[in-house]
Amino acid sequence: MRWQHVPVLMLLLALLVVPGSAQGVKYLYGSPDLSATISGTNQFAPGAETQIAVIISNSGLNTHKIVGSTLLTPDDQPNTAKLVTVGLKSSDTPFTVKTDPQFLSDIAGGASATAAFDVKITDSAEPGTYTLPLEVTYTYLADAEEYGSDVLRYNYQQKTQTLPLEVRVTPDLQVEVLDVHTGSLNVGTEGYVYMTLKNAGHDTANKAIAMVTRSGASPLIPTDGNAYVGTFEPGETVDVKFKVSVADTAEPQSYPLDVAVTYEDYEGKTVTSRPATIGLPVGGKIAFEVVSPPSTLYLGQKSILEVVYKNSGAATVYNAQARISAVDPFTSSDDTAFLGDLAPGETATARFEVNVDNDGTEKEYGIDSEIRYRDDLDNSKISDTMKVQVALERRQGTLFTNPVFLVAVLAVIIGAGYYIFVYRKKQR
């Protein structure tokens, strides 16, 4: 037995011979031993915004303990990390940490605590493995000195250490819209959207399908929103076309539309890229108006009603046909008229054959009218209802309709006939 251990053994024997006394505990050696790991995945795609949960574990041990009735037990053990503060750094990495350092209180030996950090990975992050330094600052009990039988003097030490956290940036496909233009995209109609897309990421996309989707409550609603691309290499561009409808409630302005690509990634998993939002200009609604003045028709007569229509909208219409809805006192055996193609601002005249009942009231009427047409995508559409103003009048009497005049004319004719008859008879 070495002589160095004699004092310790004598102290232990002295403690053992005092039965029933309160036992104090003193740890001679020990300190915190901290390590850090990421809870969950440590793989992230470029451009992602995520939360990294970090588990800080304390595996520090107290290796020597003394028990005795004359010993005072310290409040803290030397392997406890006290007043722990952790901060995640991101120097020289494509990560941006958005969370300030966090206070975790104490971490006893054998225990752990979790801190969460919000991070943003830059869109241009190169695939690969990066190390994020986790800076940990804590205080621990270095030793406790006894003064007499009732005084303990604590000697605390502060320590700062950096724990490495490995994170991996995975390759992905990033959609970049290089060019976009529309065709016949007007309020209340369908139109085409033409785009040139670029794979601005680092992953080769297999079985890629470009797609457009509605962006929030945007009035742009895809009706044919998928386009098969196939293999889409990094840096490659592709031209795609989609069909989009515009709600009737929209206004002539620009609205958002989301563009993304679904594909098989480097691991063979089917994933969808982060959407890119673009703005598409929407033209005004296709509309018509009656620009001819009110017409005058006569009770009890058949007339030709001429109506001039104007394309007051923002797009050309094709094969337009005007139609009136004749109701009492009007009837019509020819209530449809062909107008043809009308560009914005152009007019065309429709002629309808209308019969007016003799029992009608002399006043101004509004006859319902509408136009059926085809848009640029050959969709059949019907306009809003328009009113054709028609004034009904009764034709005033003339010489040819006055009974007295007719009797006089008849008398003249009879007299002239009698004179001619008598004159010819005398000539014989």
From TrEMBL:
It holds the Pfam family CARDB. Residues 170-263 form the CARDB domain. This is COG1361 S-layer family protein. The lineage of its organism: Archaea, Methanobacteriati, Methanobacteriota, Stenosarchaea group, Methanomicrobia.
